Amino acid sequence: MAYFIAKRLVQSVFVMLAVAFLAFSLFRFVGDPITQMTGVETSVADQERLREELGLNDSFALQFARFTGDMLKGDFGFSYRTRQPVAEMIATRIPATLELGVVALLISLFVGIPAGVYTALRPRGFATQAILMATLVGVSIPTFVIGIMLIFFFGVQLGWLPTFGRGGTVKLGGWETSFLTVDGWRALILPAFTLGVYQLTLTMRLVRAEMMEVMRSDYIRFATARGVPMRRLYFRHALANTMVPVITIIGLQFGGVIAFSIVTESVFQWPGMGLLFLESIRFVDIPVMGVYLVVIAFFFVVVNLIVDLLYVAIDPRLRIRDVS
Amino acid sequence: MLRVEHLTVKFPSRFGDVTAVEDMSLSIAPGEIHGLVGESGAGKSTVGAAIIGLLQQPGYIANGDLMLGDTDLRALDRFEAHALRGKRISMIFQDPQTSLNPLMKIEDQLVETILAHEDIPSNDAKKRAIDLLEEMGIEDAASRMQAYPHQFSGGMRQRVVIALALCTNPELIIADEPTTALDVAVQSQVLDLIRRLADIRKVGFILITHDIGVIAQIADTVTVMRYGKLIESGATAQVLGHPKHAYTKQLMDAVPPLDRKITRFRVPEEDDGLAASGPGKGDAAEAWLLEGVRQQAVGLSLQNITVEFPGTRTSIWHKPKPFVALDDISFDVQPGSVMGIVGESGSGKSTLAKTLTGLITPSSGGMTLGGSPLPGGKTRSRHHPSRQLIQMVFQDPFSSLNSRHRIGTILAEPLWLYGLVNDSDERRDLCIDMLSLVGMDPDAIDKYPHQFSGGQRQRIAVARALLARPTILICDEPTSALDVSIQAQLLNLLKDLQAAFGLTVLFISHNLSVVRQMADDIVVLRNGRIQEKGASEQVFETPEADYTKKLLSLTPVMPHDWSL
Amino acid sequence: MLAFIKRHEGLWLFTRSPFVMLAAIVAVAIILGAVFAPWIALVNPYDLASFSLMDGLLPPVWEEFGNEKFLLGTDDQGRDMISSILYGARLSLIIGISAMTIATFLGVGLGLVAGYFGGRFDAVIMRIADIQLALPAILTALLIDGIARGILPPDMQQNLRVTVLIVAIALSLWVNFARTARASTFVQMNKEYVQAAVMQGQHPLRVMFVHILPNILGPLLVIMTVDLASAILLEATLSFLGIGLPADSPSLGTLIRIGMQFLLSGEWWILWIPTLFLVALVVSINVLGDFLRDVFNPRLR
């Protein structure tokens, strides 16, 4: 078990290093950082001095080591566009994106898992066919169209819910949350739903597929032949075994949530990291792009490590070595 | 106790209803073990599933009566049927590795089953579970019960499975191939256990199996099935010892005896396209092959071969211990003889085949082919002559032929690969003739593998091997996936080919009776080590190693006086 | 005929699934329309001379003030909606199919190699895939687009927009193919027909492409369909975000972005008709993909 976790840790560090390298290459090779930082009027000599000062003439490996070191210290450099420290810019945007992502993920799990179980247990029912058709349409409507439709109906036509921004937020230390005000929740509903729909369909289809596979397994057939009560059979036996593969995929889905939050944030003008990233792409603001990448990869890696721990907790085969 | 009358089971399909079981009747008394035998597709598992009410969708019972005591099983609704399962009828499945929920402790699985059917305090249920496990021969049950299924060995798991099937004191247990996945020693223990439970607890068993030896050993009564229909039924000794029906006779003829070597199996001529190998057909292929092996038959020898696989790593600090699959293996195969390799699962016999064919690199030791050194694994180049001279027939007829290629393409591959025949028309003619030689219709050449049965595919696989003009043929469990009657035909074919072309054959099998029919010499393997080697008849008649003796004594056989 | 259909399970299921048949018809109709757009479209939306501002903002023909010449109405520039959509679908499909094709070749090639050779090859390729997975499709596509903006001179950027989009989308989709191809190859590697071929001394390339590849086409075909839908969605999303194609060469996504301006005014058709087309196209492809999955994996039925 310790070995399993250790192996995953090493892999995570590797992924982080690779992404950091990507970010560094972006910074170093896409456009010249010096011309970006200085104006047209800066003399060549001054530019050269700055270059030396920033260590841009050092060896590639040294520069990358310094870049990684700075990152670890929380020094993410400055934005080309706003001249602010990138760390600060991203930090103020993180709460918005995370809250949106978490709520969307919860929607996807709380609706997707029961729906997946239902459609797996009644594969021929009318409701199942309807749900399957609906999810097929669900994955086929682009996220931004779902956003537009929701805005159109609930915002414009019915006027029930706000269609942009975060509404009322409360500052808790450095964390700006929408969870504590009614206004904040109202503003969260449409974007979270928009973001959740796509993940929901994926979760549902995955749970369904795994559950059907498990229901066909020998141990379920044996449990049926022993007359284990149906409810227990479905939930204690089948669902638990379904969750083993499902959990790993849900970890991967978190990446999808973050990615599609870029689109959702753009549609709803939600002031999160995604919107910041879009702006930085438009203005080729390389440091922000790079740091965004690193932050996303970091979240991804952390979520997947948590998934691995969950995996170990659920599956005794990983916890306890074979005796035989 | 159980009475099945005129049972008919149908499966709707796009070609109309397919009748899986037709007009089947049987009855079982308490404490009786009733064997249900038949080859694949006979519908024996379907009968079991119909009785316990777990027919695969969309199958249904079209006709017949199913009575358990006074209960009409067909009259039960869904919920009553489910409540009855476990309580009065239970079931044991083939593979103990997959029959238990891997995420639940043994205790939880036992207790939940007991509590599902009886309203007793959970402590009593637990106590009964412990007693039952001890009765099944699991020592220290109270603490072993806290373990998860993966912590038990295969044989122990099957005991747990039987305990689970038994924990609610059912009247009837349907055992569907309960020992097929087990090794001989464990099989014999499990069979003893079943016999004891029937005698002491008066549980009725339906024992579904394809293994006639198993039936002969423990069943009181037996029903022979074929194509979903009842062929013959009655007391075991009578049905198997003095079969009335021609099919039962055929079946008994095809069972290889363990106690003697027979020259050929008696096989009805009309079966499986064998008629195609009449005179004149296959002559060209025969001549072509003889031209290739006109040179001396070639022997094979292994010197101190050891194969190690890296172990699975479980710790950060320790290097995993390598798993030794073959340990210091040496033997010689005489030119033109058949060497039998016997061993149970995990004995390393397949590893041996892969080492010889160059799929696995030995970590030490050497091999020679006809006196010249045979490089192992990665050091054997793609163009090494042994690539052609050593050919192999694999175990699984369903995966050994590329399902996306036509038979003609599959067969012609060795011909052009080794540059044996360069003209494509000639290749085709030769392939067609070779098909005749192995007893197949020539029109098979344009078909795909899925259009053939397992036995026919094995014949095609043999043809493919022969078309490389080999001198050494390795057969790795070539008949273990086949029914006995098909097995008999294939064994006959292999014997004929070996004799005709002076092939040197390495015949690998877990089945002692089959090896005895084929081999001149044998090697007995266990856990990667040679237990015994010598002339086949000598080893079978006077085994020296304890392991060989044990294997021979535990293999289920028919009582001697039954043999025809 | 009936017997022939019954013998082929896929065909048989097809004739029994009205939804799937409908989806096939819709997909084929849209694809044909896109292919023949230059011949059947009323106006060429890229050619300013072919339409007139005078015809601007006409509603579909069944609405009041609708014009029979423009069945689904016109946009603010006076472009016929049908023509814009056909040309838009054409562009979307070109990008989607090209990206999917590149991703297939790249992914399947790497996946086969990783699965066949295993060991270090496999480790390296799969670690790259891990990194790719940590950066989801949209992000990768946006990033590549951003890099292209940083590297390419402005005048080339315009000309290379389509190429950049194709590369960006292809690079964000290859992982799916690589992982599927690798997993399926692993399964096939244990099959005896592959062992037979290896044992006989056949060339690794032959084993990979002649023996293994045909046997793993099923799952790959499913991924190809699903990923074609993803690629079209991705292109639409990028264009919608204003990062894909510019307004003068509109894809379906660009049309929707333009239509957004009319969300609050009365000209609903400018937004919703292209949207409906995009969704119809993607739903049809996904229905077909789902059907293929059922055919190749009967256990899910």
Automatic annotation (TrEMBL), chain A:
| Tagged with keyword Secreted | no
ABC transmembrane type-1 domain: residues covered: 94-311
Give the matching Pfam families: BPD_transp_1 (PF00528), BPD_transp_1_N (PF19300)
* Membrane-spanning segments: 12-30, 100-121, 133-156, 185-207, 238-263, 291-314
Print the keywords alphabetically: Cell membrane, Membrane, Transmembrane, Transmembrane helix, Transport
Q: A GO CC term? A: plasma membrane
Q: Where in the cell is it found?
A: Cell membrane
Membrane-protein topology: Multi-pass membrane protein
Mainly localized where? membrane
Question: Which biological process terms from the Gene Ontology are attached to this UniProt entry?
Answer: transmembrane transport
Supply the InterPro entries for this chain. BPD_transp_1_N (IPR045621), MetI-like (IPR000515), MetI-like_sf (IPR035906)
Q: Which family does it belong to?
A: Belongs to the binding-protein-dependent transport system permease family.
In Swiss-Prot or TrEMBL terms, this protein is called: Peptide/nickel transport system permease protein
Identify the taxonomic lineage of the organism of origin: Bacteria, Pseudomonadati, Pseudomonadota, Alphaproteobacteria, Rhodobacterales
UniProtKB/TrEMBL annotation, chain B:
Q: Which GO terms fall under molecular function for this chain's record?
A: ATP binding; ATP hydrolysis activity
Lineage at the top is: Bacteria, Pseudomonadati, Pseudomonadota, Alphaproteobacteria, Rhodobacterales
Note whether Transcription occurs among the keywords. Answer: no
Give the SMART domains listed for this entry.
AAA
Q: Which GO terms describe its biological process?
A: peptide transport; transmembrane transport
Per UniProt, the keywords (alphabetical) are: ATP-binding, Cell membrane, Membrane, Nucleotide-binding, Transport
Subcellular localization, as worded in the UniProt entry = Cell inner membrane
Organism field: Litoreibacter meonggei
Q: Name the family the entry cites.
A: Belongs to the ABC transporter superfamily.
Q: How does it sit in the membrane?
A: Peripheral membrane protein
Q: Which GO terms describe its cellular component?
A: plasma membrane
What is this protein called in UniProt? Peptide/nickel transport system ATP-binding protein
Q: Which PROSITE patterns match?
A: ABC_TRANSPORTER_1, ABC_TRANSPORTER_2
What Gene3D superfamilies has UniProt attached to this entry?
A: P-loop containing nucleotide triphosphate hydrolases (3.40.50.300)
In this chain the ABC transporter domain maps to: 2-252, 300-552
The answer on whether this UniProt entry bears the keyword Membrane reads yes
Automatic annotation (TrEMBL), chain C:
Q: Which UniProt keywords apply?
A: Cell membrane, Membrane, Transmembrane, Transmembrane helix, Transport
This protein's record includes keyword Transmembrane helix: yes
Question: What does the record say about its membrane topology?
Answer: Multi-pass membrane protein
The membrane spanning regions, by residue number, are 20-42, 93-119, 131-152, 158-177, 216-243, 269-292
Where does the record place the ABC transmembrane type-1 domain? Answer: 89-289
Looking up SUPFAM superfamilies in the UniProt record yields: MetI-like
One GO BP? transmembrane transport
Q: State where it is primarily located.
A: membrane
GO cellular component annotations of the record: plasma membrane
**N-terminal signal peptide:** none
Gene3D superfamilies given in the database record: MetI-like
Location of this chain's protein in the cell: Cell membrane
- One matching Pfam family is BPD_transp_1
Recorded family membership: Belongs to the binding-protein-dependent transport system permease family.
From the Swiss-Prot or TrEMBL record, give the protein name.
Peptide/nickel transport system permease protein
Q: Which organism is it from?
A: Litoreibacter meonggei
**From which lineage does this chain's organism come?**
Bacteria, Pseudomonadati, Pseudomonadota, Alphaproteobacteria, Rhodobacterales
